[in-house]
């Protein structure tokens, strides 16, 4: 039990440090290369924080448990919006520029709808996996095109543009902070799971609470850190990017490695809830204004939605 407690405490301390370092160095990269912070959020933060899900998905499919992969993908998307964005908005309301949602959210919505259509037959095939992978490639090509556009922005805590000699150091620190971020999340999951087992908690409860929270901790830490630094575009970019990678990247892996039949409850419960939350993300962010705010009340609504989902998991 002592090792579990040590793992939890050290994991949380490392998580706080690495999230701060990750967002700081991500901001520096954006300034060095004159890239929109939204693009940094979509690509570096979105892909980086989705790395655990991709690893779990690949290993699960390889070991003959592909159904774990689809649960991982859909579950992570639900927790990213309902938990991560909800808590972040409650702590500090998130300002969202309308033009952020013109393409990025639309691409997320289209990808979500296509993924649902591919799974309607109750089977994730090799062709389905390739289709999702093609959507990921299209998204990446769009991000790279956008990153080449001239973009002028300022970061509150970065006063001067880093010199060329600092580029290598910044990339290195970004990579190290990402590794520590993901490792700290694993420490928390291991410590929490071990404690739960010792207290006789069921596997289902462990998976829905400790493990689900653990895989969302990188996104949560990065989003809160970005919000406090007033890098709001990175917060939204992180959520949209992470969900996109989960939908078209994580979901594609089991289809390519080991096609399988989809459990009925995935399309009757999990997918509709994920789709509903994706629409809720748009409604709370858009509001037909040039710049809107995801406020604390809307954050509470997202947390309430998560509670409803957990209720459905436990009692239905």
Secondary-structure map:
Blueprint lengths: L1 H31 L4 H26 L3 H26 L2 E4 L6 H16 L3 E2 L1 H22 L19 H32 L4 H26 L3 H19 L1 H6 L2 E2 L2 H23 L4 E4 L1 H20 L1
Antiparallel strand pairs: 1-4, 2-3
Helix pairs in contact: 1-2, 1-6, 1-7, 2-3, 2-7, 2-8, 3-7, 3-8, 3-10, 3-11, 4-5, 4-8, 4-10, 5-8, 6-7, 7-8, 10-11
Characterization of the model:
With 316 residues, the chain is mostly helical. The protein has one domain (2-148, 169-315): Up-down Bundle (A middle domain of Talin 1). 78% of the residues lie in helices and 4% in strands. It has eleven helices and four strands. It has helices spanning 2-32, 37-62, 66-91, 104-119, 126-147, 167-198, 203-228, 232-250, 252-257, 264-286, 296-315, and strands spanning 94-97, 123-124, 260-261, 291-294. It has a two-stranded antiparallel sheet. Strands 2-3 form a two-stranded antiparallel ribbon. Helix 2 runs parallel beside helix 8 (232-250) and helix 4 packs antiparallel against helix 10. The radius of gyration is 19 Å and the shape is globular.
Offer a concise description of the structure.
Helix content is 78%, strand content 4%. By secondary structure, it is mainly alpha-helical. Helix 2 runs antiparallel to helix 7 (203-228), helix 3 runs parallel beside helix 10 (264-286) and helix 10 (264-286) packs antiparallel against helix 11 (296-315).
């Amino acid at each position: 039990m002592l090792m579990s407690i040590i793992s939890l405490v050290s994991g949380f301390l490392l998580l706080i440090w690495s999230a701060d370092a990750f967002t700081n160095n991500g901001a520096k990269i954006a300034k060095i290369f004159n890239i929109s912070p939204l693009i940094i959020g979509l690509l570096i933060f979105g892909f980086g924080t989705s790395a655990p899900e991709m690893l779990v998905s690949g290993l699960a499919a390889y070991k003959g448990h592909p159904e774990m992969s689809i649960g991982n993908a859909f579950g992570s998307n639900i927790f990213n919006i309902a938990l991560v964005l909800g808590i972040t908005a409650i702590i500090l309301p998130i300002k969202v520029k309308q033009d952020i949602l013109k393409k990025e959210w639309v691409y997320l919505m289209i990808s979500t709808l296509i993924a649902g259509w591919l799974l309607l037959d109750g089977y994730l095939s090799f062709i389905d996996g390739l289709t999702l992978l093609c959507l990921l490639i299209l998204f990446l090509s769009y991000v790279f095109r956008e990153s080449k556009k001239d973009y002028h922005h300022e970061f509150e805590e970065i006063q001067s543009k880093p010199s060329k000699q600092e580029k290598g150091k910044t990339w290195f620190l970004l990579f190290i902070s990402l590794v520590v971020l993901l490792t700290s999340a694993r420490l928390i999951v291991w410590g929490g799971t071990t404690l739960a087992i010792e207290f006789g908690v069921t596997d289902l409860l462990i998976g829905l609470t400790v493990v689900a929270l653990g895989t969302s901790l990188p996104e949560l830490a990065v989003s809160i850190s970005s919000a406090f630094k007033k890098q709001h575009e990175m917060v939204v970019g992180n959520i949209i990017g992470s969900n996109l990678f989960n939908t078209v990247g994580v979901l594609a892996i089991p289809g390519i490695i080991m096609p399988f039949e989809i459990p009925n409850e995935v399309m009757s419960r999990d997918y509709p809830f994920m789709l509903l939350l994706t629409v809720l993300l748009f409604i709370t962010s858009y509001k037909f204004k040039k710049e809107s705010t995801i406020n604390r009340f809307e954050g509470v609504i997202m947390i309430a939605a998560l509670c409803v989902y957990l209720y459905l998991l436990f009692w239905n």
